[in-house]
Every structure is written in C-alpha cells, then in structure tokens.
Amino acid sequence: MTTQPLSLSKALRNAALGLFAATAVMAAITPAFAAAGIRDAEIERLLRKFSDPIFKAGGLDPKAVNLYVINDPSLNAFVAGGQNVFIHTGMIMTLDTPNELKGVIAHEAGHITGGHLARGPEAYAKAEIPMLVGMLAGVAAIAAGVPDLGMALLIGSQSVAQREVLAYSRTQESAADQAGAKFMNATGQSPVGMMKVFDRFADQEIMSGYRQDPFVRSHPLSRDRVSNLQNLAAESPFKDVKDSAADLAQYELMRAKLRGFIEKPEVVLRRYPVSDRSAPARYARAAAFFRSAQLDRALPEIDSLIAEKPTYAYYWELKGQILLESSRAKEAVAPYRKSVELAPDEPLIRASLGAALLATEDKTLIAEAKKHLKAALKDEPDNGMAWYYLSLAYGETGDEGLAALATAERYYTLGGYGPAVNFAQRAAAKLKEGTNDWQRANDIIGIAQAEAAKRER
Predict the structure, then answer these.
(1) Number of domains the chain contains
(2) CB 3.0–4.6 Å: which of 64, 75, 110, 143 could bond 176 by disulfide?
C-alpha cells in the first residue's frame, strides 16, 4: 500500500482549479488540508466489487466513475468534478459492515445520477467572494502575529460559504437518499446500512461546524430525513438481506490493513493483540511491525497468512513490499512475481514488481522490469509511479529519449504541465522524427502548453 498525491482526472483537476482556487490560501497555512491518496490493489479491487453493481444499477458506466481513497481519519465521502467519488479512510475504518459502506457509495451515486453537481458551480460562485475575502483577512491576521484571530476568520469564512452551498443541497440530499435506496434494491441488497450511517450522524446537525464530522457538513441532515430513510429501509423487500461471509471477511481484511498502515503501531497492537490469531489481526500486525522496522516480527505474521492461503495474491504483495522497502530487493522479487502470477490483471502489483527488479541493480532484469511496467501502463496509463520507474529503466539502458518521454508522461499525468513540456521537448529532440514516440512527445507539448495557458487565464 502506498500513500501518494492523487493522480486526478483532467476534468477533476480543472474543476478543482475553477471552483476551489481560494482553498490554496488555506492549504498554504495548514498543510494538513492537502490530503494524500492511498493506492492499494486489494482495497481498490474490493471497493470496485462493492460499487460497480451499484453504478450499473444507476445507469452509470463503472469504468467512467473514478474512485479515490483519501488518507484522512475524518468520516467523509463525497462526489466532486463529475463522476469522481472520494472516500476517506476514516469512513472505511469506522463503518462496521460492507452494507453500510455500500449504502454510502449508493448515496454518492445518487448525486451523480441526479445531476446535482451541475448546480454546484452556481452555489460555489455565490459563496466564493465572501469566503475569499474572509480567508484573505485571516491570512493577513496570521501574518501580523495574531494567529487566533486569523484562524477564527478562516473558519468563519468557510462557515459562510458552507451556508450558501447547503441552501442548494438539502433537497438534493433527499433525492440522493431515494436514488441510493433504489440502487441497493436493484442489486438485491438491503438499504438498512445506508439508513444506519445517516442515523449515526443525524444528531450532529445541532453541533457547531467545528465539532461536526465533514460528512455532516457536506451532507446536511435532519431527523425528518432520517425518518424518511427508515421508511425506505422498512419498505425494501431486501431489508433483511445480510452481507455474505466472503464480503465480511474481505472487508475486515481491508480495514485491518488500513489500520496497520495508518494507525500508530501501539494502537494497532492494542486493537489486535498478539493473542488474536485471526487473519485480520495478523495482517494488521504485519503492516504495523513493518512500519516500525521490526522485520523479525512482520515476516512471520505475513508468512503464516501465506501458509494458510497461498493463492491470495495480496499476501504475497505485502511480503514483497516489506522486503523491498527494507532494502532487500533481491528477496522481494520472488513474492512479487508470485503475486503477479496470481493476479496478472493488477497494474499496481506489476508496477511494484518492476520497481523491485530495478532495485536489485541486476542489469539482466531490466528487460523484465520494462515488460511489467509497460503492462501496468497499458491497463492504467495515468500511473505516475509506473512512468517514473519506466523512465529509470530506459535510463539504465541508455535510451535517453524514451527516458525523457516517460518522465514527460509522468508529469503530464500529475498535472505538472510545465515540466511535462520541458521533458517532452527533450524527448522530441532525441527521438527519431516521425516515430510514434516522437509524435507522442509533440502531442504532450501541444496539449500541456494549452492546459497551462488555461490555468493562467
């Protein structure tokens, strides 16, 4: 599992720039607001298993809906910039069952199918000016040595904007509830989980914005709305349908893995003491011991899981990660190869195998590394990590033009249009004119320059 800046879709990057430019001021003062995304093949696979049937029930193409996991302990999930669903790790780790998480996803799908985001810019445009004025005043106060006043102004400006936006969204929230329940019924699943989630948050509406969970602030609730959700759940012919044993087991593994990587090791060990020999407990401890550099304890935990279930690709993947990031690249290759063998359609695992092969510094393995990195990029062309390692592989074999092109691709994927143009120009100068790679370099130059110009307007 890796934590990295999100590689957002072009549409979402543009929407973020257009609607939330003012928040850059806030981020400059409080870096914690710049949350990082989590990439993990196992977690993404399970979330897709949960969400794709729901998207299909709503008439959406699952491949057109992007799912992002945000490394943030707060309880939140939201839709932004079109068909982009964001889920905080805090939401996943707090909700007790797959059905509850599916209910949240169904609700967010309801926002997409309802076209609610089409009205979003109107609300934000109305709120942007007072928010920006308040935020600038807050920045000035902090710069002048009055941090308490500055933070009060910043928080106050956000509250003003929030009230403007919420005035647009209460009706939309109820419509998303109705749609979410419909999608759950259409997939033969109970909407009770969705009702439980919103019931959990209902009493928070009377709290101040500072004490509310972000989900409440972005999804305005009322007891009437919760009552309507209870009625929807009670009327469902699938209200008594429970999560399958397989879904529950996979969900607990996912939550354990997240906790092992995110929570402090001592917290993980209190939650999953060594006396707990369940698979989720050992999974969490393997990650926690790894993070605290206790390989002598991490490896036995993951090895015990592999012994019990040798066909589970993600156990082998974690073992590979533990060894690779502990400077034991040569030993990491075998478990990564096994993981790719068991899950050949996982681009993240292929990219990690490519990285491990390069880290061995064995030049006889470079060709294999390139093969896996190219395969990963064929399935996931916006994988910045894979482009980075492919550029290194080309550099090792003296292919300077292709190395520069891979670097240009990486920057372009991450929205770094300036560096993308620079590296694409280097690539075009070194590649044979008229080839597909030369043409791609020139395409990046033209497109990235146009996108950079849009940002400056």
Answers:
(1) 2
(2) 110
CA end-to-end span of the chain: 38
Which positions ≥6 away from 85 have C-beta within 8 Å? 51, 65, 66, 67, 68, 77, 78, 79, 105, 108, 109, 112
Which residue's structure tokens are 């005035």?
167
Last residue of a domain, one of 192, 212, 235: 235
Q: How far apart are CA 320 and CA 328, in angstroms?
A: 9
Contact predicate 66/12, CB 8 Å: yes
Element (H or E) spanning 105, and its range? helix 98-113
Q: Does the model's pTM come out above 0.85?
A: no
CA 455/CA 89 separation, integer angstroms:
31
pLDDT digits (tens, 9 = 90+) for 411-446: 999 999 999 999 999 999 999 999 999 999 999 999
Q: What is the pLDDT of residues 124-150, one digit of tens each?
A: 555 554 554 555 555 455 444 455 555
What is residue 221's DSSP assignment? -
The type of residue at 324 is L
Give me the domain span that covers residue 436. 398-457
Q: Give start and end residues of each alpha helix (H) in 58-119.
A: 89-94, 98-113
List, in order, residues 6 or more apart from 35 with CB less than 8 Å away: 70, 71, 72
Q: Are 67 and 47 in contact (CB under 8 A)?
A: yes
Residue 296 in any domain: the answer is no
Distance CA 110, CA 181 (A): 9
Q: Does some domain include residue 366?
A: no
* Neighbouring C-beta atoms of residue 141, cutoff 10 Å: 18
